[in-house]
Amino acid sequence: MARKKWLVPQLDKEKASFLSASCGVDPFAALLLVSRGITEKEQVEAFFAPDAPLCNPFSIKDMDKAVERISLAVERGERIAVYGDYDADGVTASSLLYLYFEMIGADVVCYIPDRESEGYGLNIRAIDSLRKDGVDLIVTVDNGISAIKEAEHIRQLGMGLVITDHHKVGPRLPEADAVVDPHREDDTCGFEDWAGVGVAFKLICALSDGESEDILEMFCDLIAVGTIADIVPITGENRTIVRRGVKKINSGENPGLNALREVSGNAERSLSASSVAFSLVPRINAAGRLERAEKAFELLISQSGERAKKIALEIDADNAARQELEQKITREAQAQLLSQPQRAFDRVLVFDGEGWHGGVIGIVAARFVERFSRPCIVITSDGVNAKGSGRSIEGFSLYDAINSVSDLLAHFGGHPLAAGFGIAAKDIPQFRERINEYARTVQMPFAELRLDCRLRPRFISSELLPVIESLEPFGAGNPQPLFGLFDMTVASVQALKGGKHVRLTLTKENANITALKFSTPFETFPYRPGDRVDLAVRLEKNEYMGQTRVSIYIKDIRMAGTDDEKYLRSVRLYEKLRRKEKVRPEHARLAVPDRTFIASVYRFLKANGGFFGDTDILCYRLGDDGSSACRVLMSIDVLCELGTLRKEDDAIVLGDTEKKVNLSDSRLMAYLESLI
Fold first, then answer.
1. pTM for the full model?
2. Helix 148-156 vs helix 124-132: crossing angle, to nearest 10
3. What would the pLDDT profile of 438-473 be if each residue is shown by its tens digit?
């Protein structure tokens, strides 16, 4: 995983002490709240209030029009189609609205487009099909705000259209009986962070004469799953929804969600918002990624435990297949960097392949963002047409980047951190070139890892667990606390589960702790006993045989005292030089290795039989604080060019150690020397 810039806030301990005393809050909880910018008494009271007040649904623009048109359809016995989306937010929103319409006696059907053959949102073919089935009114959930052409087609067919969406609004609204979207410029309701299922929830509250409490009690489990899935901020009304919803999920009232808990191995566990996100949501999404999202819809509306179990098993198999596809595409994409190594220096990484499954390319893009700490786009094509899905890092708007090349695209949409598009396969090389040209015109931020506070290991105990739990539910806008353990000494490293994970024993100030690092092969783990390290960790409850203990999970690890800013700037300079962009002479002199430096790097690698790990660790082993990362990387590239080293994934492997080489034979070395 590429190095992130760690952010450790400077805490106002006096403010935390004041809030603790004045609000009756645990001192450690007050400290965590202050680290998150919650510094006023009123904010603390609102945060810990059992339920945030739910706004009047009629305060949302066009909600009155939506209620009027839908009520008329129910009164007339018109057939209503709930038109949803294939992700977990869209599926839960579809289930919610369908169940409500059934409950009030409406003639209702549900339509969720196929991801592969239809794509996102309303489409003409589906509209025509619904019309043939006797549908008089279409109500969208989690889509529709950009369906200008489709809305016109619906009007020409004499059908009604009510749009409920939560995506950003374009320059023109579709012509519909009602357009309910809190992001409308003329909307003044005061809250806009609902997921698609949240907007659908407000609609049925309005249809029930504003009786929000009863509706929330009835459907909060479905609303919570969609809200968690869409990664909207868990603040305000969303905090109320998720807190209540997770409690209802654990009560086991919904047969479909209960079956998902069972197949995911969580039947006996009390789920949190975080575990809902990692166990239930991926399985709901898997149905829409690989097969039919209707399968997940059928699961969520099922009233039969036996039927729900059967569908849940099928969805669990879909999720396993999704993971295999994801790994296959990841391997093939990584192979592109090996065959075309120059692309590894692109500001925006763009991978493309024929026949890659479109349902998982977004997940693969997210994996690459985590690995390379830069924006990534993955494109699949059939040789003629292609579609792409991308993810980004905070501070770089992928939507703006894709918009800059919109003349190449058949369609596109998304957010700053995630976007998708269609494109002709022949235009992919030009797309890659131009989006990187755009990225050159903006300041690319460093990927960041924000810690809540520093923690001394001797203070870690089970007594902290209820304090941390008091901040639940966790999610976007209120993440699970991340603590920094600094200047720890590695005492031992052990392999777990066949070498797939590692367990570290660490010491400091006469305190010993054990921490786990998952998905980290023991044989390639680059830290060893005696190393002084900094760790970013989460603390979680571990209940076993009636006893509660603290489990420490490592999110990130680095050598103690690492200067992230200095190291990352040196790596950026290396990438700039490898792209052969102009650099200032004074920067070049600091960045270019001389022959003595290259020889020292080679001697170290030869003595250690190569190296596995990030460059910051190699710098540390060479006695550098990270400021020479550019020179280290350049030295390795020169030696690889001459055949004495080679790169294999994240490893540096010795080449022909007997071969006599002359640095003057390196074209890269000649280029570097020309700079100074």
1. 0.88
2. 30
3. 999 999 999 999 999 999 999 999 999 999 999 999
